[in-house]
């Protein structure tokens, strides 16, 4: 994953998530919040960014980044729709950016 993290940036993750999740310009707060959680989680997983870096990038605190990561890790282990969405986009990004 180290080689992959040199090709994927938080901006890459953000743009791909926006495309995949069809982020609306003035969408509901809850919908955007869940999408931000997914994007923050993937930034940690794929970019290996620190929690403070993630928080700063998304105009949140490092505590919000930690919360996003832990919540999505739990969702992935429970195989919820939220977790499955994250797996799909993670796999897409890995395939797209592998050498």
3D architecture notes:
The protein is mostly helical. It has a single domain, classed as DnaA protein, C-terminal DNA-binding domain (Chromosomal Replication Initiator Protein Dnaa, Chain: A). Helices cover 77% and strands 0% of the residues. Helix 3 packs across helix 6 and helix 5 crosses helix 6. The longest helix is centred in the middle third of the chain and has 19 residues. The mean pLDDT is 84.
Helix and strand topology:
Blueprint (H helix, E strand, L loop, with lengths): L1 H4 L4 H12 L7 H19 L3 H7 L4 H17 L2 H17 L2
Task: Compute the average pLDDT.
Answer: 84
CATH architecture descriptor: Orthogonal Bundle
Q: Give the CATH level 1 class.
A: Mainly Alpha
The secondary-structure element order is HHHHHH
> Helix count, per DSSP?
6
Helix content: over 70%
- Determine the structural class based on helices, strands and strand pairing: mainly alpha
Distance N to C terminus: 12 Å
The main pleated sheet reads as: none
Q: What proportion of the residues form beta strands (DSSP E)?
A: under 5%
Instruction: Report low-confidence residues grouped into runs of 5 or more.
Output: none
Name the shape in a single word.
globular
Radius of gyration: 13 Å
CATH evolutionary superfamily: DnaA protein, C-terminal DNA-binding domain
Give the tally of structural domains.
Answer: 1
Tell me how many strands there are: 0
CATH topology: Chromosomal Replication Initiator Protein Dnaa, Chain: A
């Amino acid at each position: 994953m180290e080689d992959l993290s040199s090709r994927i940036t938080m901006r890459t993750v953000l743009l791909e998530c926006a495309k995949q999740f069809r982020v609306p310009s003035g969408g509901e707060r809850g919908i955007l919040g869940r999408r931000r959680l997914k994007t923050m989680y993937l930034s940690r997983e794929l970019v290996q960014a620190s929690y403070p870096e993630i928080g700063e990038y998304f105009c949140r605190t490092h505590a919000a980044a930690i919360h996003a990561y832990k919540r999505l890790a739990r969702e992935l282990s429970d195989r919820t729709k939220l977790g499955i969405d994250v797996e799909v986009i993670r796999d897409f990004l890995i395939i797209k950016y592998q050498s």
